[in-house]
Write a structure and sequence with these properties.
There is one protein chain. The protein is α+β, with helices and mostly antiparallel strands. The protein has two domains: 2-76, Arc Repressor Mutant, subunit A; 83-112, no CATH class. Helix content is 42%, strand content 11%. It has five helices and three strands, in the order αβαββααα. It has helices at 2-12, 36-44, 67-76, 88-99, 105-109; strands at 27-29, 48-51, 61-65. Strands 1-3-2 form a three-stranded antiparallel sheet. Helix 1 packs across helix 3. The protein is elongated, with a radius of gyration of 21 Å.
């Protein structure tokens, strides 16, 4: 389910393609929130574990992704489309956009 995959990806800090440094492993939510039932379903499927909340979490539960959940993310994340090859002119224009110049593209090129 797309919603479950998104929760797992967010919990470990990766993008929709499953890429990025997995710099965390937690998801905090409580009863009545839109994600709570989905997290409980992930626990039932062995993709997350649940720990009772504390004062630190305002009583909300803390969910952690299991190794099986990490594997699930790797297998079910979107596949990144191949990068489009850019022409020399397209690369130059992208460089202009990244420069955040206060001049027109023609001025940036030195035409005017």
């Amino acid at each position: 389910m797309k919603e479950h995959l998104h929760i797992l990806q967010h919990s470990i800090g990766v993008d929709q393609y499953g890429e990025g440094r997995q710099y965390r492993n937690h998801f905090c939510t409580g009863e009545g929130s839109k994600d709570f039932d989905a997290c409980r379903a992930l626990v039932e499927n062995g993709l997350m574990t649940e720990r009772a909340g504390s004062e630190l979490t305002g009583g909300d539960s803390v969910f952690h992704v299991t190794p099986a959940g990490i594997d699930y993310v790797a297998l079910n994340s979107l596949r990144k489309p191949p990068e489009q090859k850019l022409t020399r002119s397209q690369k130059r224009y992208k460089e202009y956009l990244r420069s955040e110049a206060d001049e027109s593209f023609a001025e940036w090129l030195g035409i005017y």
